[in-house]
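Query structure, 266 C-alpha cells:
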C-alpha cells in the first residue's frame, strides 16, 4: 500500500506524518486514526499475541522492517530487548519518537538497514518478526535464507498472498509432466512488474503453498498460522545454503558455524 497522509490536528504527530502504523499513545492520542485498513496493525497483533510468550524477559528480539514500531513496542512491553531494523529514515524517526512516548527507548536499538544485511551478521535473536516485508523484495527467497540463519527460537512471517489454499508438498516432476505446474494449487508466485495497489514496491505475491514451501526450503518449520497470511515458524533441520547466500550478498565465504549449516532442531 502506498503511504498516505492521515488527518490529525495534533501538531506533534502531524510533523512526523504520513503514518502507516496507527499507534495508540499513552496519553490517548492516535497517529493514524483514519487508517484505510482500520486500526492497523493492532488487529494483526491481536491475532498473533497469544502465540508469543507472555514473558519475554531475557529474550533478544529482532523486528525486520519495523516501520513506526507497533510490533517492536508490543514485544518490548513483554520484556524483550529489541533490535528494530528499518530502511526508511522517515519511519525510523517516527519509531524513535514513539519509543520515547512509551518509555521504551532503553529496551530498543534502532538501526537503518535491510533484511539482506542479516547475511553478514553473526548475531542471533530468540524471536524474529518479519511482518509485511517479503512481497516488497526483489529477492524473497534470498531474504528468507538470511532471516532463517539468525533465528534461535521463533520466527513470525506475514506477507501478502494470492487467494486460495495449497495442496500437499509435491514430489519430483518430470519434464514431460510440466503441465502439472499449471494446476491451480501448485506452489507459485505472481510477479508484479508494474505496481499493485498503486505501490511500485510490491514485487511478488505467493500463494500459500509457495510461501510454506519457501519456508521449508529455508530450514524453517511452520508450527501455527496465527492469522490470515501469517506463519509461526521454528528453526528446523540443517540450513544448507550458506555458501550461496554469501556469494549472492557479496559477503564472501561463510563458515559452517556462522551459516547455520549445523543441524538445528525444532
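Result returned for the query:
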Amino acid at each position: 500500500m502506498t503511504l498516505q497522509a492521515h488527518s490529525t490536528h495534533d501538531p506533534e504527530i502531524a510533523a512526523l506524518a504520513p503514518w502507516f502504523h496507527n499507534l495508540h499513545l499513552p496519553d490517548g492520542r492516535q497517529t493514524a486514526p483514519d487508517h484505510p485498513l482500520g486500526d492497523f496493525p493492532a488487529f494483526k497483533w491481536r491475532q498473533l499475541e497469544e502465540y508469543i510468550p507472555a514473558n519475554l524477559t531475557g529474550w533478544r528480539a529482532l523486528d525486520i522492517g519495523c516501520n513506526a514500531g507497533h510490533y517492536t513496542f508490543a514485544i518490548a512491553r513483554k520484556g524483550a530487548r529489541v533490535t528494530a531494523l528499518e530502511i526508511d529514515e522517515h519511519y525510523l524517526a517516527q519509531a524513535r519518537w514513539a519509543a520515547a512516548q512509551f518509555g521504551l527507548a532503553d529496551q530498543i536499538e534502532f538501526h537503518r538497514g535491510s533484511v539482506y544485511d542479516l547475511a553478514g551478521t553473526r548475531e542471533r535473536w530468540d524471536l524474529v518478526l518479519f511482518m509485511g516485508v517479503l512481497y516488497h523484495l526483489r529477492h524473497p527467497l534470498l531474504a528468507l535464507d538470511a532471516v532463517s540463519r539468525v533465528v534461535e527460537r521463533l520466527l513470525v512471517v506475514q506477507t501478502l498472498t494470492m487467494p486460495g489454499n495449497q495442496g500437499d508438498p509435491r514430489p519430483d516432476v518430470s519434464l514431460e509432466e510440466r503441465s502439472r505446474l499449471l494446476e491451480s494449487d501448485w506452489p507459485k508466485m505472481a510477479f508484479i512488474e508494474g505496481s499493485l495497489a498503486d505501490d511500485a514496491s510490491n514485487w511478488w505475491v505467493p500463494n500459500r503453498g509457495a510461501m510454506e514451501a519457501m519456508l521449508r526450503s529455508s530450514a524453517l518449520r511452520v508450527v501455527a498460522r496465527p492469522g490470515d497470511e501469517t506463519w509461526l515458524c521454528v528453526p528446523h533441520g540443517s540450513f544448507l545454503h550458506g555458501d550461496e547466500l554469501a556469494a549472492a550478498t557479496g559477503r564472501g565465504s561463510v563458515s559452517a558455524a556462522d551459516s547455520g549449516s549445523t543441524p538445528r532442531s525444532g
